[in-house]
Amino acid sequence: SSPLTRALHTALLAFPSNDVLVHFDLREVGSNVPENVPRSMKEVLKDLQLTVSERDESLLLDVNSLQPADWPRDYSPSVIKRDRIRRVFQWLYKERPESTIAVVCHYNVIRSAVIDGEKLRPRNATPIRCSLYSNG
After folding, report:
1. Could you say which of 87, 90, 104, 109 would form a disulfide bridge with 136 (CB–CB 3.0 to 4.6 Å)?
2. What count of other Cβ atoms lies within 10 Å of the Cβ of residue 45?
3. Which residues on neighbouring strands pair with residue 21, listed in sequence order?
């Protein structure tokens, strides 16, 4: 999941019986829309406290292992979004053992991740089935 509150909340609600790993490079970037502003994970988890408390304690909710040391500093203007997103998907392909992965993130991240994404108009909470290749 993206580390942003709305995406993480969606991941927790959509996958209540699955482990959730937050990847900080899946965050939305750009504009000063409040939902796109990075916040500390402590703040995010406080807002999601009820949903988190309802999860089985044996399930993983990993918000720390991939967290950049300077989070929540927004360094997005200096990073090319398409390259950052491609690196995430290359990491998923090469490093994760799962054969099926759900990625929960915001609209523009999805559009950056898929071929011909500029034409894509995904609806909220509608799954998009994709194949992942080694080049991301």
Report:
1. 90
2. 15
3. 62
Report the 10 Å Cβ neighbour count for 133.
10
Q: What is the pLDDT of residues 20-36, one digit of tens each?
A: 999 998 887 666 677 77
The predicted pLDDT at position 120 comes to 77
Q: What angle do CA 10, 14, 16 make, to 5 degrees?
A: 110
**Prediction pTM value:** 0.86
Residue 87 CA to its chain's centroid (Å): 13
Instruction: Return phi, psi of residue 9, to 5°.
Output: -60, -45
CA distances from 118 to 65, 88, 130 (A): 31, 19, 16
pLDDT under 70: residue ranges of the chain: 29-32, 74-80, 136
**How is residue 79 written in tokens?**
């990073």
Alpha carbons 110 and 129: distance in angstroms, whole number: 12
Return the structure tokens found at 132. Answer: 């992942």
pLDDT at residue 113, rounded to an integer? 78
Distance CA 21, CA 15 (A): 12
